[in-house]
Amino acid sequence: MVLIRGAEATIYLDKNMGEVIKKRLPKRYRVKALDDAIIEERTKTEAKIISDVRRAGVPTPIILDLKDDEIKMEFIKGETLRDIVDEQMMEKAGEIVGKLHRGKIAHGDLTTSNMIYSDSEDRIYLIDFGLSRYDTETEARGVDIHVLFQMLKSTYNDHEELKNSFIKGYKRVLGEDEANSVLKRVEEIERRGRYK
Questions:
Q1: What pTM does this model have?
Q2: Number of domains in the chain
Q3: What is the DSSP secondary-structure string of 19-59?
Q4: Known catalytic residue: 109?
């Protein structure tokens, strides 16, 4: 069963096996040999990042199998934070993103749609690492959080409270000084966008 059709991949759910399969899509405008190599490289990189993110203490789906163009993962039963977000959830999300950034990884598409809350485990899972990368720069972490804050602002009436709860959890894990450095960069990124 198709869960999501995206520009880069299609996500399938195999309910019988309790698995999710992310299959990268070929790009017809590229030479096939080049396209195959790009897809294989991106698939392997995403799988490696997912494994490293788990090692950094961030809940992610477990990878069950890897092929040239697809990643088979466990299915996480729960709801996206987009549908159930509150201040307590955002504080937990802040802790998770703090662990992610402490592990020197930028998500690349940090939204509440890419976070799943498992009620049975009382745990938030981070998903969709297709745009993720290893990055030690404050800028990359700032962009991650800027994207999240912009999404909160455009989606939720209580976005300021949600933002403050996220910051509380983020600082708890990353540490006050490092978190403040990233948050200062978020403000700079916002100013750059405003005055372009």
A1: 0.91
A2: 2
A3: EEEEEEPP-TTS-HHHHHHHHHHHHHHHHHHHHHHHHTT--
A4: yes
